Each structure stands twice: as C-alpha cells, then as structure tokens.
Amino acid sequence: MDLRKLNEIDINDLRDIDFADMAEWPVAGRLVLVGIIIVAVLVGGYFFLVQDQLENLERLEREETDLRSRFELRQERAANLDDYRDQLEEMRESFGTMLRQLPSEAEVESLLVDISETATASGLESELFEPQAEVERDFYAELPYRLRMRGSYHEFGQFADDVAKLPRIVTLHNIQIRPQDDGELEVEMIARTYRYLGDDDGGGS
C-alpha cells in the first residue's frame, strides 16, 4: 500500500461511504478499510502466533533456571561428597568408641566395685548403694544406682573427677548436698552406668 496516498485522504470523502455498496467506495474509504484489515491481521497474528511463542520462551527460561539450580546443587553435593564420607567415618569411629565404653552385662558388677573403691579412695564414707530399676533404650540400658555418701566438699570433687576418668561411662545426676552438724556434707545422687544391648537382649546398634 502506498503510504503517500494515505496523506491525500480527504476526511469528507469518508462521510458519503455507502456500507452496502463497497464497490462504489471512494479511494479514501478503501484505503482506510485496507489499513484496518492490515492492523487487525497484525494484531491477530501477534496474539495467536507471537504471544504463544513468547509464553513458550518464558516457560523454557523457567525450566532452564530450574535445571541450572538442580545442576549446581548436585555439583555442590558431589564436591562435598568426600567431606561427607570423612564425617561419616568419624561418626562411626566415635560410635564404636562409645560402644566400647558401655560395659557388657558381665562387666557391670566389676564397674560397681570400681565406683565404690573410687569413693573410698577419695575419702568418702558410703552410706547407701542401692540399685534402681533398669531402663532400656534403643541399643543400651541405663542402670541407675542411688548413692549416699559423707565427706568434705573437696572429697566429693575428687570423687566426681575420678568417676569421669573410669574406662566405662558413668554419669552423676540429681545431686543433693546437705550440710551436717559435724561440718561434713551428706551428698545423695543417682549414678548411672550403661549396658550395651546385644541381639540377645532385643536391642541392636
């Protein structure tokens, strides 16, 4: 279409257009109609073709971003795999060390003797050594003992320090200290040792 002809359109020519007889339309009317048709085709083509392609492009860009994020995450995991393996090995070693510190059923009695001898060596006087009900956990059992002893503050501190150095795990809980008339202290506590539950006991590691 010659754009120069559009500049020559007289708006008055459009007023006499008979829409029932398009063949008799003036040139100006026909040019306007052609222009409207061209614009309609372009707009329709955009919405039916270009817009659809733009939406597909946006979808592909989102998928690319998602794939890139997944790739970077997997790459990071792969880079840290050796560190994870080292940490896992350290955890296994620590777990194995802890298990070795849990006495077997046969060793519990000798451990109780060790606790009693530790109290005596610290200068404490044992008044009560009473076993409590055993409590089973996932792979071990707690063996609590109620202890009551007399002595000085320094002697109790020495006892707690020596118990922590025993080759098997022993923990002290619910410590209650009561001053006595003779200047000594009476201490009551729960000492817990732990027994590993093997397959025969219904537990496991």
Automatic annotation (TrEMBL):
GO terms for biological process: type IV pilus assembly; type IV pilus-dependent motility. Gene3D superfamilies: 3.30.70.60, Helix hairpin bin (1.10.287.540). The keyword Cell membrane does not apply. The chain crosses the membrane at residues 27-49. Residues 50-101 form a coiled coil. Keywords: Coiled coil, Membrane, Transmembrane, Transmembrane helix. It holds the Pfam family PilO. This is Type 4a pilus biogenesis protein PilO.
